[in-house]
Amino acid sequence: MNQTASPCSGPISRRSFLSAGTLGVSGLGLADLMRLRANAAQASSLATDPDTSVIFVWLPGGPPHMEMYDMKPDAPVEYRGLYSPIRTNVSGADVCELMPRHAKIADRYNVIRSIAHTFADHGGGHKRFLTGRDPLEPTGFVNDFPMAGSIVAKERSHRRVGIPNYICGSSRGNTNVDAFSFGAAYLGASYTPFTFTGDPSDPKFTVKNISIDDSMATRLEDRVRLLGGLDQLRRNVDNSGMIASMDQFNADALDLLTSTRTRNAFDLSQEPQALKDRYGRHAWGQRALLARRLVEAGSSFVTVVMENAYVSPIRYPKYAVFNWDSHAVNGHIFEDALARLPVYDQAVTALIEDLYDRGLDKKVLLVVTGEFGRTPRVSYSVGTRSKVMQPGRDHWPQAMSVLVSGGGMRTGQLIGSTNSKGEHPQSRPLTPNDLWATVYRHLGIDYERSYIDNAGRPMPILPYGEPIAELL
């Protein structure tokens, strides 16, 4: 059954950022985010933070591990699929023939083949993987616990470097954090990401709420002066602390509105044309390039959603699958892979090479994954769009492949293995929690720390899990 996320209703309406006698920026992008964050931010020492960050590439729907990083050419025909593995520059680390760029740089990344969990529904799988906890409800996409990116935003809420600490690049118009289970749960909405949407390769691509024109700047300056006088009177009688909180919101919002660092980070026109070509002139490639710019500018956690490959100049044929949910009823898995994997291959390898070429391979940890793998045994069904019998694979959390690169790790490794049919871990069984423990360690976050949930109970950042020793 096709269980994709509900379509997003789109961003909330944007208003003028000057309203009701207070200074603000409108929309979820900065206004609510910075206001809530100002009200909720904890004091913490910036000096203790390592200069590290994470790019998290999310492949919603569940990428097929046996068509990508864990191929089984000797398995029975009903398991092994259509494509053949090719050798890489690391002995034994074969990848799919549709990913030749991966084959050339396998020494710069690791593939973990033995992460597994037990939640086969998309909603349950998203929540299990992204939060490090078994969800209270095994379906649906609204988080019971905070997504890892929200934990990072909370832990680094004191950082003010002129750019949001937690950013997400997603599909066109999709600012709904619940679409992919990116919600912050009991941490509160202030720790959800600043989201940009759309296709950065489109000449009309814009990012909302990061700049103002000259005429608005003049009005803003006048309003700040006026509010300064009025607020001085209000501060004298305020005993609740709300004025101080709003002052911080105003300062943060103003910083981001007028920040050249933020505007420059989102300005792809500063990148050489040859590098844009290397990433690929499509949404996935240019979104990945933006992610590199954002972490280089100081953002701590940048999520890149690679969902629909059929954007920009790439057509959407009848056999295609919108995201990575390659059930036979959704699309022809092998025909879809023929179009999808080269786009993915180009974007991800360009990002890896760019991080290394710019000396960011120690600062930036790259993680590429979906919520689960696909069934090892191929199934067949009549496609909803194609109207013909076609092959596919269903949900399979018992085995999946995760790519990790950078972070100062040892690379060129295969970590763990699955059995001969790709059904379950055979060696070095791991969970998503072990991956997140590795991520938190890279960021200098104590994952044994606890936060209080809505019921007043202490909740550790991770209930269990250990950093993956092979990566350290």
What structural keywords apply?
single chain, alpha/beta, eight-stranded mixed beta sheet, 472 residues, globular, two-stranded antiparallel sheet, 20 strands
Secondary structure layout:
Blueprint: E1 18-19, E2 22-23, H1 27-40, E3 53-58, H2 77-80, E4 85-86, E5 95-96, H3 100-104, E6 109-115, H4 122-131, H5 148-155, E7 166-170, E8 194-197, H6 214-237, H7 242-257, H8 260-265, H9 273-279, H10 283-297, E9 301-305, H11 333-357, E10 364-369, E11 373-374, E12 379-382, E13 389-392, E14 395-396, E15 400-406, E16 414-415, E17 417-418, E18 425-427, H12 432-443, E19 450-452, E20 458-460
Parallel strand pairs: 3-9, 3-10, 6-16, 7-8, 7-9
Antiparallel strand pairs: 1-2, 4-5, 6-15, 10-15, 11-14, 12-13, 17-18, 19-20
Helix pairs in contact: 1-7, 10-11
